[in-house]
Write a structure and sequence with these properties.
The chain is an alpha+beta fold. It is 66% helix and 10% strand. It has a 5-stranded mixed β-sheet with strand order 2-4-5-7-6. Strands 1-3 form a two-stranded antiparallel ribbon.
């Protein structure tokens, strides 16, 4: 028999030996890794997770030892590379770092060398170059395993870094937009303050003149309204500043949301009547909830006042209803609605966010997934003329307070509106809070 045939037979015998002792090899590798203090985290894996693609790597290695031609050897080596790369991916997904994976390959190489020594001891008459070729193939196997695992780690790290960069860029864009909207809100507030101060200044100047009593009384009323408007706007600005600074805290208690909303609507009907508008309240007679009663009342009050300001004809309807895990407050008006650019920045932002949420819900429904939350809020037909952006005064500050209070109460704020339809603000409140359960 030629030396080549003898060498081929020895390598086949080695491959058979490794196959027969596969379980002992994996067990020895398992024990070596657990004995390594730097690899203690591997104990959290199941046996199947632990072995992962290593049996496939060993299968390909044994095929390479048995290979009779270069094509089969090349195919076996390609399988080794693929299995080693998949093993690196698995270890990445399990949260292990690159150094741990490399140490794992080192232990595998030592365990295989021990198998080689046992085989050599049982076959003293081996062809001299056979084991040298086998050890060279083993060194290449483990070297390729380290290289493929490291390459996979590098690609995964690059992909993760790119994803984080995209997230940071998106967050930066969102923050910049938020800052622009916030600056626009403060600009509008400053404009409203200047307008109120101008009214007060003009009325005061007129009152300093000698006027007949009817005119003096008229300008005195104008002055009083200007002072009240200025006081309200300044109070709102202080509230916004406190909320943005995180000085407000929620005070959770149990209360009847239906009762406080009924009472609020009763007290605000005079305001609606002064504008020749209706104010309707509709919902269950009792709605026991857990939350911050004062802040819920402030949200409802600001939304109703905002709706009354936006409406020239018709009126406002306040609705509430209970769901299993949350409850809804809707404030609908018969105002003109708006399109992009015809409303305050915060209203536009709320409308965009609501539309995006509805699109996500619709896609989930088409995909057969369960929908979360309520259906889009209905709107009333518009009975009011279109408002120009210059006619919007004070609403940005009030809505800023509503938005901040909703964030504080873990509530969501949505806006449904369109030209020819009124606007509906809907707030979704939790029916309970963790701090209330802990009391």
């Amino acid at each position: 028999m030629s030396d080549e045939a003898t060498r081929y037979g020895a390598l086949q015998a080695l491959a058979d030996y490794l196959s027969q002792h596969r379980e002992q090899l994996l067990q020895a590798w398992h024990q070596a890794l657990h004995a390594d203090p730097e690899l203690a985290s591997f104990s959290s894996l199941s046996r199947a997770q632990f072995n992962d693609h290593i049996p496939a790597v060993l299968d390909a290695f044994e095929r390479r030892l048995r290979g009779v031609d270069s094509a089969e050897a090349a195919q076996a080596r390609a399988l080794e590379h693929a299995s080693a790369a998949e093993h690196g991916l698995h270890r990445w997904q399990q949260g292990y770092d690159q150094r741990q994976t490399m140490r794992e390959w080192s232990h595998l190489q030592l365990c295989l060398l021990e198998q080689f020594e046992q085989f050599s001891a049982r076959h003293a008459q081996l062809e001299p170059t056979a084991m040298a070729l086998a050890r060279k193939a083993l060194a290449r196997l483990c070297g390729d395993g380290v290289i493929e695992s490291a390459a996979r780690y590098l690609r995964l790290q690059q992909a993760e870094a790119a994803a984080r960069l995209r997230d940071l860029e998106d967050a930066l864009i969102g923050l910049q937009q938020l800052e622009r909207d916030r600056a626009e809100g403060w600009r509008q507030a400053a404009h409203d303050l200047r307008g109120s101060v101008g009214i007060i200044s003009n009325a005061s100047a007129v009152l300093n003149r000698e006027l007949a009593e009817p005119l003096r009384a008229q300008f005195s009323q104008i002055l009083q309204r200007g002072v009240r408007s200025l006081h309200t706007l300044l109070s709102d600005l202080i509230d916004v500043a406190r909320l943005e600074a995180g000085h407000e805290r929620r005070r959770i208690s149990q209360f009847d949301a239906a009762q406080i909303l009924h009472d609020l609507c009763d007290t605000m009907r005079n305001t609606a009547a002064e504008r020749n508008l209706f104010l309707l309240a509709q919902g269950p007679k009792a709605l026991p909830v857990t939350g911050d009663q004062a802040k819920v009342l402030r949200i409802a009050q600001n939304l109703i006042l905002n709706a009354l300001k936006a409406t020239q004809q018709g009126g406002v309807q306040v609705l509430w209803e209970a769901r299993e895990q949350y409850w809804l407050l809707c404030v609908q008006d018969t105002g003109p609605g708006f399109t992009h650019g015809s409303a305050a920045p915060l209203e536009q932002a709320l409308k965009r966010a609501t539309e995006e949420s509805n699109e996500v819900q619709a896609r989930a429904l088409v995909a057969g997934e369960a929908r979360s939350g309520a259906d889009p809020a209905p709107t009333l037909p518009s009975l009011s003329a279109h408002r120009s952006p210059q006619a919007l005064t004070g609403e940005g500050v009030g809505l800023s307070i509503v938005k901040r209070l909703c964030e504080l109460l873990d509530a969501s704020l949505e806006l449904e509106t369109a030209p020819g339809e009124g606007s509906t603000f809907r707030v979704t409140f939790p029916r309970s809070y963790a701090e209330a359960a802990a009391q």
